[in-house]
Design brief:
about 190 residues; mainly alpha; two-stranded antiparallel ribbon; about 65% helix; about 5% strand
Length: about 190
């Protein structure tokens, strides 16, 4: 998917996303945080794209999708289409003037996601549904870390960066929602 289509998809999906939880509850507060973070990354991506920085725009949009999809999958958020997928079609190939920045950022985000995955542990009691969901979040982050690694080795840096950003968005949202205890590198999470 090209970056401007990803922007439009995220913007459109966010416009249809709502918080189904009563106000003045802890879960509403968490849902509002998740939705605001997804919107913040959509705004950041839009700002980067307008400034001629497609590398950071791509990372921002996919990170926003990670937060949004966590919220939708957890039931903290709902929308008309909870299955909106930014990974359809081929990734846009960025022009050569962005290759150095793209390569550096892709490798850095690969390390960042690996570090993040190794810096958390499931917080909910193992006998609860929240524990199962936390394991699912770890699984999703792992899948996108592994897929991004394969794409990185193949030189498909745009898709690799999208995978790393998306997987880290899921994990970061999970930390913010209390699904994980941060055991190291607290500074790489939004809590």
């Amino acid at each position: 998917m090209n970056i401007s289509d990803c922007q439009a998809l995220l913007t459109g999906t966010l416009s249809m996303t709502r918080i189904p939880i009563p106000e003045d509850t802890p879960f509403h507060t968490t849902a509002a945080l998740i939705l605001e973070m997804a919107r913040a990354y959509e705004r950041d991506g839009t700002t980067f794209l307008a400034a001629g920085d497609p590398v950071n725009a791509l990372a921002g949009f996919y990170y926003g999708f990670g937060w949004l999809h966590f919220g939708l999958a957890s039931g903290l958020l709902n929308g008309m289409d909870t299955a909106t997928c930014p990974f359809t079609g081929q990734s846009e190939k960025l022009p050569p003037q962005f290759w150095v920045k793209l390569g550096e950022k892709s490798h850095r985000y690969d390390r960042l996601l690996k570090t993040a995955r190794n810096s958390v542990e499931c917080a909910p009691d193992p006998a609860t549904a929240n524990h199962e969901f936390a394991l699912r979040v770890l699984f999703i982050a792992g899948i996108y870390n592994n897929q991004g690694g394969h794409l990185l080795q193949s030189g498909v840096y745009e898709a690799a960066l999208a995978c790393f950003s998306y997987g880290h968005g899921w994990l970061d949202a999970g930390v913010s929602a209390g699904m994980f205890r941060v055991t190291a590198h607290r500074d790489i999470f939004c809590v």
